[in-house]
Write a structure and sequence with these properties.
There is one protein chain. The strands form two sheets. This protein has a six-stranded antiparallel barrel. Strands 1-2-3-4-5 form a five-stranded mixed sheet, with helices on both faces. The chain is α+β, with helices and mostly antiparallel strands. It has six helices and eleven strands. It has two domains: about 120 residues, Transcription Regulator spoIIAA (2-Layer Sandwich), CATH 3.30.750; about 120 residues, predicted glycosyltransferase like domains (Thrombin, subunit H, Beta Barrel).
Length: about 240
């Protein structure tokens, strides 16, 4: 595979050519160099890609993980029609934002920043994180039986959590977690999406585990989480 790199509005655009397969480790190397150079917003252009196999998909996933784990964003554009089915089967279209054109993808980075600022101003309470150890049950949203039992939430916010003790999921997977807040005997069931995975070598104290973002959460459930978090944070401040 050949890769040509260009810059647009401080966003790195990687024009990919040829086949993405077992010989595509250069993609991960290029992504790593972009991050080291301070560029963490990356677009991969697939317009001239002829073929992708499952080893190539693995290379794309590793590249995406590298970007996400460095607090960056990666987006795909110009997926050829003959490759869209493979992206769907592999779940990449659920985990990674895909756009029809370069301009749409570039604009989406600007929109992301605007949304982030709005959230910081209007939803500040939801981003408070509580360091805590809560036992939960976790399962794949597509399966009825729990995949991992008696896991730990190491920190909790009203929009997500970090779950420790499970390495059975990948980025973009949808899960169901069940937990009880100490102040409320009612068991909560929350839908979530895996949005971050720790690197075993760089963050061994967090491995195995994953960061999840809550999905389709009702305002009443979110308010219960907020009340629980703020109450416990105030207790911690009093103890100090």
């Amino acid at each position: 595979m050949e890769i040509k790199t260009r810059l647009k509005e401080k966003i790195v655009i990687l024009d990919l050519y040829g086949r993405i397969d077992v010989d595509s480790a250069n993609l991960i190397e290029v992504i790593g160099q972009c991050i080291r150079d301070g560029y963490c917003e990356i677009i991969c252009n697939f317009e001239e890609v002829d073929f992708i196999d499952y080893l190539g998909i693995s290379a794309l996933v590793l590249a995406y993980k590298e970007v996400i784990n460095n607090n960056g964003r990666m987006k795909f554009i110009n997926i050829p029609a003959h490759l869209k089915g493979l992206f769907s089967v592999a779940g990449l279209d659920r985990a990674i934002d895909i756009y029809a054109t370069e301009d749409l993808a570039v604009n989406s980075f600007r929109e992301d920043k605007i949304i982030e600022e709005i959230k910081k101003l209007q939803l500040r309470r939801r981003f408070k994180r509580l360091p805590i150890d809560i036992k939960i049950e976790l399962r794949d949203k597509r399966q009825k039986s729990p995949v991992c039992l008696k896991l730990d939430i190491l920190n909790l916010s009203a929009i997500g959590a970090y779950i420790y003790g499970c390495d059975k999921f990948k980025l973009g997977d949808e899960v169901i977690l069940r937990l009880k807040l100490s102040s409320n005997p009612q068991e909560l069931e929350l839908e979530a999406k895996v949005v971050w995975l720790p690197d075993k070598q760089i963050q061994p104290h967090l491995h195995p585990g994953m960061g999840v973002e809550f999905c389709n959460i009702s305002s009443s459930i979110q308010e219960k989480l907020l009340e629980f978090i703020e109450r416990n944070l105030s207790f911690m401040s009093t103890d100090e």
